[in-house]
Description:
By secondary structure, the chain is mainly alpha-helical. The protein has helices at 3-9, 11-23, 29-43, 47-64, 66-74, 77-97, 104-130, 135-164, 166-188, 212-216, 219-240, 242-249, 253-281, 283-287, 292-303, 308-336, 341-369, 371-394.
Amino acid sequence: xxxxxxxxxxxxxxxxxxxxxxxxxxxxxxxxxxxxxxxxxxxxxxxxxxxxxxxxxxxxxxxxxxxxxxxxxxxxxxxxxxxxxxxxxxxxxxxxxxxxxxxxxxxxxxxxxxxxxxxxxxxxxxxxxxxxxxxxxxxxxxxxxxxxxxxxxxxxxxxxxxxxxxxxxxxxxxxxxxxxxxxxxxxxxxxxxxxxxxxxxxxxxxxxxxxxxxxxxxxxxxxxxxxxxxxxxxxxxxxxxxxxxxxxxxxxxxxxxxxxxxxxxxxxxxxxxxxxxxxxxxxxxxxxxxxxxxxxxxxxxxxxxxxxxxxxxxxxxxxxxxxxxxxxxxxxxxxxxxxxxxxxxxxxxxxxxxxxxxxxxxxxxxxxxxxxxxxxxxxxxxxxxxxxxxxxxxxxxxxxxxxx
Length: 404
């Protein structure tokens, strides 16, 4: 089935997923990083001081997320989306107050939990459960919501900050969640049945539905986990400290924000290709190669001084981010089934988010020490992880046997 046919047949669930991906931007590092210099200046925080608070908030969010994973599998989509939207509104209001009250840490926690964690968990789980035969294309279309946000929201946010200050800019984002996200999601799924799936689904029944405990007993899970964790670890650290790259290269922060357009556009284009590749070759095979574009991008970043190299690097990073977003959901559904995907994915997200908490600290230390050293170390780690994923898949990674 083509992308056009899928969009025509299932616009409501695709729009529902895309809205969750788009509004997850409120808690994503690429948007928060735009505000970091202003927060540090007004609250008199050092880069390390903010990074520590960000890490604490992110880890706390990660540890809390598995508590709602099973509930997301069972609850009605209208309920989880309404509560998620209200959480985003509260998070933005707390960030508005953080310049007046000592609530920066709770504000960051709420942003990370309801934004980066909750929105992605709800949207991706709904899409992966609904689509079976065309899961790759379904995830590709819905994840474009995040790609669109990555393309335009940094520019919009920094413009709002310039017009009304960073505190009021957060209120604008909260208003968007109240006026757009909540009404639109409730409207899109008003007639959605909890157990509805693709009408044309012919998904193989050879994949058993694993519980979270059974996943933890599978050795393949632990082999693929570090490959999955590297991208969120790296991308969070590199985004939150993009000012250090800008300083080392002599580029302005306005230009660094503008390069997100290339990042977002590339993600959108790559999502179409990636979705088709997943449906044709499986997510596990595509997963082997998803880190290679960012390795090339890092080489470009190291050799180039002109600001156009920043754009090329961000485009290649966007390719990897797109493939990572798609395979990061589909691979677990392929291996462990979709019935308990919310519980499984919340556990994986917890581990992943912990890695994003460590990213700003480790990458920030590396960039302050040496940009070149950080780049070459990252490239070396990437190639080790590529060989690890190839080893797993090439040794006939079939559906594992459940451990009772």
